[in-house]
Here is the input.
Amino acid sequence: MSQTFEVEIYGQRYAVRGEADQAYVVGLARQVDEQMRTLAAGMKAATPTKVAVLTALNLAHELHQARKLQQENAESVEKLAEGLLESIEETLGGSR
Here is the structure.
């Protein structure tokens, strides 16, 4: 069921409509707000648009790094499973 509620990010209120849990979306908005404020604190000319774009780039970087780590972990698990299968096959083949 779709619902509408408001969140505040960087001093602006936004109406959000969707099926996600309100507490979850409010938490995401809080995270974006914190990142924007942190970035703005370190900038001399911090226009809202510039801060928003830099925050989006930071979040995109974090997402990319998380996906890369997930892929590396999946590859490690696959190699480990292959090694275990080979070991089992050798053990079973050697005991016959």
